[in-house]
Amino acid sequence: MKHIINLHENINDTARNNSDCPRVVLPEEIFFIISIIGVLENLMVLLAVIKNKNLQSPMYFFICSLAISDMMGSLYKILENILIVFRNMGYLKPRGNFETTADDIMDSLFILSLLGSIFSLSVIAADRYFTIFHALQYHSIVTMRRAIVVLTVIWTGCTGGAITMVIFSHHVPTVITFTSLFPLMLVFILCLYVHMFLLARSHARKILTLPRANMKGAITLTILLGVFIFCWAPFVLHVLLMTFCPNNPYCACYMSLFQVNGMLIMCNAVIDPFIYAFRSPELREAFKKMIFCSRS
Fold first, then answer.
1. b/e map of 13-45 (b: 16 or more CB within 10 Å)?
2. Distance (Å, rounded) from C-alpha 141 to C-alpha 135?
3. Which stretches are transmembrane (predicted)?
């Protein structure tokens, strides 16, 4: 994000020197390559669901929502690199109107990626809950129409939230709101997991009779959630430290890893499609057909 990067560049030099932690700088080519791979992989997920009718179910629509979120995070970095190239070549006026507008659009994509991921994972968790504990009524509860309505509401709200956060990005309440969504999602899913565990204990025999695919979906969600936390939590912590203790040498030491934290976010978009493919035989088969058909 432009606003975060600008704040990062303005961290007090004394705090950075006292921390004895040199700033870690990664080549922009690494970010660009990882982002390209992330866009292509998640685009494959979307195409696989669009082309295969057997994958056109609420569960895979929710997965597509997460894939779109990942793709936006990668697209943000690609556009940023292109903008930097044009600026270095002299085609763009530094800090001109066009660059400022483009930066705001890219920042919106970045925030939209995080918000989309948070709410997509939450709705996937809810879907897994209904799949396991309301298996007989699942198809009447989670219909395609309801899934589309839920996703429409989610993405409309996320888009409005992303634009609002960019406009008011320099205000502390905005930062608090931005960072609080991350733990709120974890609390929601954790509460859902605890409830599922308590229900599982009281319905042990019923759970054993469920199809293995239902339990496998819950495990897949756990893996996706773990990867998401690992990749995004360092950046969220960075934003909090930069807002509340920018001049502290210990905070400055952690913030020297800014680009490493950014690379973890890009890696999330690359890892997720592998998780889908590894955990879902149907999606893995769709990938094989797409790859081999394109080669032939």
1. eebbeebebeeeeeeeeebbebbbbbbebbebb
2. 10
3. 30-50, 59-79, 108-126, 147-168, 180-200, 221-244, 256-278
φ and ψ of 4, to 5 deg:
-70, -40
In sequence order, the 6+-apart residues with CB closer than 8 A to the CB of 122 are 185, 188, 189
pLDDT band at 151 (very low <50, low <70, confident <90, very high): very high
Q: How many residues can be counted in the chain?
A: 296
Instruction: Please report the pLDDT score of residue 201 as a whole number.
Output: 60
The span from the CA of 102 to the CA of 129, in Å, is 40
Q: Under 8 Å CB-to-CB from 19, ≥6 apart: which residues?
A: 249, 250, 252, 253, 256
Burial label for 11, CB within 10 Å (0-12, 13-18, 19+), is buried
Per-residue pLDDT reduced to its tens digit, 8-57: 444 444 455 555 677 888 888 888 899 999 999 999 999 999 988 888 88
Tell me the C-alpha distance between 104 and 241, whole Å. Answer: 23
**From CA 71, how far away is CA 38, in angstroms rounded?**
6
Q: What is the pLDDT of residues 87-138, one digit of tens each?
A: 777 776 666 677 778 788 888 888 899 899 989 988 988 888 888 777 778 8
Alpha carbon 221 to its chain's center: 14
**In this structure, how many other beta carbons lie within 10 angstroms of the beta carbon of residue 128?**
24
Distance CA 10, CA 170 (A): 14
Share of the chain above pLDDT 90, in %: 20
Q: Which residue blocks in the chain are alpha helix, DSSP H?
A: 2-9, 13-19, 28-51, 58-88, 97-133, 138-141, 144-167, 172-202, 204-208, 212-244, 249-255, 258-279, 281-295
The span from the CA of 116 to the CA of 128, in Å, is 18
